[in-house]
Each structure stands twice: as C-alpha cells, then as structure tokens.
Design a protein that fits this description.
Largest sheet: 7 strands, mixed
Bound molecules: flavin-adenine dinucleotide, iron/sulfur cluster
Mean pLDDT: 96
Strand content: 15-25%
Low-confidence stretches: none
Distance between the termini: 40 Å
Structural class: alpha/beta
Number of helices: 14
Shape: globular
Length: about 600
C-alpha cells in the first residue's frame, strides 16, 4: 500500500464539534514530534497541516534514472527557480512580475528538480515582502523534513551558555544536561548514523552504523587532527541499521538518491516526519489529521485570555472553520509560527497572542553561508572509479573557532559540510574544456579527484533583525504575509572572511591543490535554518516562552519549533528542535494530567 493510502486508511474525519485535548499546528519535525509525544501520553490530538498529503513515494521516485525521465529530471520549462542574483538585485515578493507559470525558491535550481516541484511552495501563491531573503518553504504533510539534508547535530553548553562564554546575547534557560536525555530519545526513536568522537562542543549521539569516509576524506581528517580540528563522517538523521519499532521505514541501502537531488528518500531510511512520527502517532488511535488546513488565528476565550482553539481556512475550498482544544501547540516552523502569533490579535492580546513582551518576530537568526572551496587531490587523478555518492552524506568538519581561544575579529563559530570522490554526475564535466574522446577521458580521469566543502556559521540573534506583518500584501488565501527586516551584520561578514581563509589553510595543509575559493556571501535565508522569533527565557519582558516552550502570557499555549531557540549556534537545528519538542510535550502532558493548564 502506498504511503498516502496508508495515511488515508488510518485517518478519521476531523470532528470539529468536539473539544480536543490539544491542537498541533504544522506537521514537520516539530509538529510531528508534538503529535507523537502527546498521543503517546494518551492525549487526543488534532493535527492541522496547511499543506496537502502528497503521494510522496511516487513523487520522489528515488531510483528513477535520468534517462527514464523525459527532461532528465528537470522541471517543465514554464517553471522557474530563483537565482542568487535575482534574490539580491530584486526585492521581494520575487515572483510578482515573473512571466513563468510557477516560481520556486533556489532549491529548485538543483538537479532533479522535477521530483521536488510539488514539495516546495510556489512563490506566486506565497509572497513575502521587505528585505532580501531566500525563504525556502515546503507546505505538505511533513513539511521540510520530506527533503531535508539529514545532517543531525547536537548543540552543547558552548551554545546553550554562549553569553556566559563570550558576553553576547542571552543564555538559553536550559543546559545540555536538561536536553541530553531527549537527544538520546530522538536518536533511538528515529535513528542516526555517525562515529563517536568525544568532542565536548559537538556531543556524540547514540549512533547506528556510520557512513564511511573515502581515502581523500581520511587524509583530510588525519591532517586536521594535527591542527586539533575534527572531521567526522556525516552525522545523518538516517537509520542505517533499521528500526524494529517502526514498520514504515527501511534501513538505508546507500542508494544516494537523497544526496543527488534536493533530498528525500522513498524508502524512508532518511527521517521524515510522516513515517517517523505521524503514522506511528496515528497507530495509537489518538491522532486526528486535517490537511489543507491553513491556521490563521489562535482563538481566545475572552473570559480567561487562554487559547480556546484554532481558526483555519481550507486550502482547497477557501472555507473557514474553527477547531477547539484545551491546549494549542504551534509548530508551523520558525517564521510561520511567528506570523500566526502576530495574526492572533484579540482584546486580551492586542499585540498578538503571547506577545506582551513585543519580542515575537524579533531576535531572528540562522546560519550564514557562502564561502566554500574546491581542491584537487592530485594523486587520485586517473585512478579507478569508486562508489562515493551512494550514501546519505559525506563529512562534517566541526567548529574550531572561539573554543578556548578568542578570535580578535568575531565571536562564535562555524563548521563545514563537504564531500569528495566519484559521483554519478561528474561535476567537472561542464567546466572541462574540449570535445571528443580526449574531453571524455579528461572528465573521467579527474571526476573522482575533487574535494569541496562549504561553511555554515552562526548569525547572532539581534532584536533589530525581525519579521512583522505586512499591512498591505496577502497570500493566495487572503492571509497577510510576513515582511522581513533582516540583514547580516559585521560579525557575520568578518566570520565569512575567516571561513574562506581557513578553508584554504586546511586544504593546503592536507596537500590538496586549490582549484577554487569563493568568498561571496549567499543571500540571507540560504541556510534554511531560520530560528529565534519567539525565544525562550526566564524574563517574560525579554522573552516569549519559558524553558518548556510554554508562553509566558498564555499557559495553555506552546510553541515547539525553532522559533524558541535563543541563539543559532552553528550546528544544524533539526535534531535540537525535536529533542526540545519532546521535552516540552512531556512537560505539557504532565501539566495537563494535573489540570494545571
Ligand atoms: C533542502 C533542505 C535541506 C535541509 N538540510 C538540513 C540539515 O541537513 N539539517 C538540519 O538540521 N536541517 C536541515 N533543513 C532544515 C529542516 O528541514 C528544518 O529545520 C525542519 O524541517 C524544521 O521543522 P519545523 O517543523 O519547524 O518546520 P517544517 O518542517 O517546515 O514544518 C512546518 C509545517 O507547518 C506547516 N504550516 C506552516 N504554516 C501553517 C499554518 N498557518 N497552518 C497549518 N500548518 C502550517 C507547513 O506546511 C509545514 O508542513 C533543511 C531544509 C531543507 C528544505
Ligand atoms: S542513501 Fe539511504 S537515505 Fe539516501 S536515498 Fe538512499 S536509502 Fe535513502
């Protein structure tokens, strides 16, 4: 049975006359986790998802060869993917004057874009305004987890207590020891591959079988060791050994499809929220799923000021509905959650629900990207081909700046993601000059000899980086859109210079010939790691949520996605989003049972 049939068979009609124990808004990493944890505690949950249910396995077709696709995997010609220059030169809304029938974010400029065109949003229907920002969204059951890049990292006390370390910003209201048991639960429930390294600032997970490094990567790892830096196999949110407790997911067979396209795995070895969390939650009999349900307001009981439910628009019919619940959990992703909170104005909450501090939408942060390097591992030229891209990722190079030393130019740090070796589509084919048999030989000889990596750095959380509601522009469904007021600052720019310099230093040290170094910073938003628009904290005047992602103002309102993060760190956020959501929903269920919400 295909996944969509399975979901439909399990799904019961949403009954909007009853009052649910909890409504969860959004079904991605955060919402899926909330649904899983709350239903496992016996709570009756209504999950509202704005997007559709896609027959995802048919969509992804992970094993389809390029020559079996009429456009070799590319989108139809009437569809357009935004380029870096468009993001920088033009102003949002980027699709407003485009002649293309469909306009998508830059992710659709990657190979195999036809397989993800129904997963990411059409910018024509989903405009936003303000400063330049490359906003990547996926509106469907499971959200961005359907195509995420799978790098699953933990944060450490260097991140949670960053202010204590360098004096900037705010510490998180939790420490590593508070979240560590929940990282463990996420590891065991969802599966993660990697190697234990015992590095305090990149804590180990409970790993399944690791992805193997190839010869060139091992050489770089050894060279970096001498510099006291760590290169480790990609810590992939992928089950490599299988999960006995989950019948919807297979173990990874190293087909590499997730790595060659925008992402996605049609046997669900890579974590995605529908098979990892939502289907198991449905099996409890406690979950009701309503897709095509665009939440536009958290409703409020005027007598108590508490949340009473969620008003939503049916994405297909445009009709409006209201669902009732004793607790509301927002998990619509960092920016959409802030939008929903700001749209939820009432007499009790004139500034938007949970926003008496005025911090909703503010302290917005993410990761800066751009600087990257390509090197040639000369002694691999002409060597026999090896299978290097039949895996869900290659390597991660952990942060090494501002650990015990203090960089004079910037605070915080960055890591690199990279890879090397033979790939199904030799990247050097388009840049190699010539034609005929000598051209082909050249391409083949060099195809497996390149190594490249790109950096992800912490963008500082700043109050003046924020989103608000545009008073004039609405989306296709008449919901006011977000307006960005967000720019990289001096710290990020200086960090980016250092990224390019250290990349060269490390490749030179390893004996690689440097072919290309890019110093250009990509448009804000490129990392797809947006965080911090409803941050946690212990001071209700300077934060939106407490340490359990519970609103300071409205005790039966929780916001369990990346909007709660106090700072961005430089590690990819999804594993932390899920560990925190698990912790908060355990707390929520306990408080619910005690009648304290
Ligand atoms: C190409 C790509 C690569 C990535 N690589 C990595 C990586 O390697 N490592 C990593 O940690 N992270 C990665 N990410 C980011 C990762 O996908 C996100 O951190 C994660 O999905 C966030 O989970 P979320 O639940 O907050 O948001 P989402 O997964 O986006 O889910 C939010 C859901 O809420 C729904 N929604 C939105 N608004 C409403 C509304 N008003 N009403 C109802 N529902 C609503 C959306 O339709 C969506 O389904 C990547 C993302 C992409 C796209
Ligand atoms: S490499 Fe593994 S996770 Fe990636 S598509 Fe293949 S089976 Fe799925």
């Amino acid at each position: 049975m295909t996944l969509i049939r399975l979901i439909r068979a399990t799904q019961s009609e949403a009954d909007l006359r009853r009052t649910y124990d909890a409504i969860v808004v959004g079904s991605g990493a955060a919402g899926g986790m909330a649904a899983h944890v709350l239903t496992s505690h016996g709570m009756k949950v209504l999950l509202l998802e704005a997007g559709k249910q896609l027959d995802i396995d048919k969509e992804l077709k992970s094993t389809e060869w390029p020559y079996d696709h009429k456009r070799r995997g590319e989108m139809p010609p009437d569809s357009h993917a935004l380029s870096l220059n468009e993001y920088n030169i033009r102003q949002p809304p980027y699709a407003s004057d485009s002649k293309a029938k469909h306009v998508y974010s830059y992710v659709q400029g990657w190979g195999g874009s036809d397989y993800s065109k129904n997963i990411v949003v059409d910018e024509k229907d989903h405009p936003y305004t303000g400063t330049n920002y490359a906003w990547v969204r996926a509106r469907l059951l499971g959200g961005k987890t359907n195509i995420w890049g799978r790098l699953a990292l933990r944060l450490s006390d260097l991140d949670f207590k960053a202010k204590t370390h360098d004096g900037y910003g705010e510490d998180w209201p939790i420490s590593y020891k508070d979240i560590a048991p929940y990282y463990d639960k996420v590891d065991l429930y969802l599966g993660i591959s990697g190697v234990k390294e015992n590095v305090p600032h990149l804590p180990d997970s409970i790993f399944q079988r690791p992805i193997k490094l190839n010869a060139a990567e091992i050489r770089l790892r050894q060279s970096l060791k001498k510099m006291n830096r760590l290169l480790t196999p990609y810590r992939a949110g992928v089950t490599t050994d299988g999960l006995k407790h989950n019948k919807y997911r297979s173990k990874c067979f190293g087909r590499g499809a997730c790595n060659r396209r925008a992402g996605g795995c049609d046997i669900h070895a890579a974590f995605d929220s529908p098979t990892g969390l939502i289907l198991p939650a449905m099996d409890t009999g406690n979950l009701t799923l309503r897709t095509n349900a665009i939440a536009h307001q958290v409703t409020v009981d005027p007598k108590t000021g508490k949340a009473s439910g969620v008003a939503f628009i049916d994405a297909e019919t445009g009709r409006t509905y209201e669902a009732k619940a004793k607790v509301v959990v927002i998990a619509a992703s960092t920016l959409e959650s802030a939008r929903l909170m700001m749209l939820s104005k009432s007499n009790a909450h004139p500034n938007g629900i949970g926003n008496s501090s005025g911090h909703v939408g503010h302290n917005f942060c993410e990761h800066i990207m751009g600087p990257h390097i390509t090197g040639l591992v000369k002694d691999l030229v002409g060597k026999p081909r090896t299978l290097d891209d039949g895996k869900p990722g290659s390597f991660y190079l952990a942060r090494f700046r501002n650990l015990s030393e203090r960089n004079p130019n910037f605070i915080r740090g960055y890591g690199f993601e990279g890879g090397s070796g033979t790939t199904m589509f030799p990247g050097n084919a388009t840049s190699t000059p010539g034609f005929g048999s000598s051209y082909k030989k050249n391409v083949r000889d060099y195809a497996g000899a390149f190594m490249s990596m790109g950096a992800f750095g912490e963008v500082l959380a700043r109050y003046e980086n924020y989103v608000d509601i545009d008073p004039a522009v609405k989306d296709k469904w008449g919901v006011p859109v977000l307006r960005f007021h967000y720019k990289f600052g001096d710290n990020e720019k200086k960090m980016a210079e250092d990224m390019a310099n250290t990349a060269q230093e490390m490749f030179t040290e390893a004996g690689f010939e440097i072919v290309d170094v890019s110093r250009r910073i990509l448009t804000e938003g490129w990392s797809i790691h947006e965080l911090g628009t409803a941050r946690m904290g212990s001071d209700p005047k300077a934060s939106v949520l407490n340490q359990f992602q519970q609103s300071h103002d409205v005790k039966n309102l929780f916001v369990v996605d990346g909007s709660s993060h106090v700072s961005a760190s430089c590690q990819n956020p999804t594993w932390t989003i899920m560990a925190l959501a698990w912790r908060s929903c355990d707390y929520l269920a306990d408080q619910f049972k005690k009648g304290s919400l």
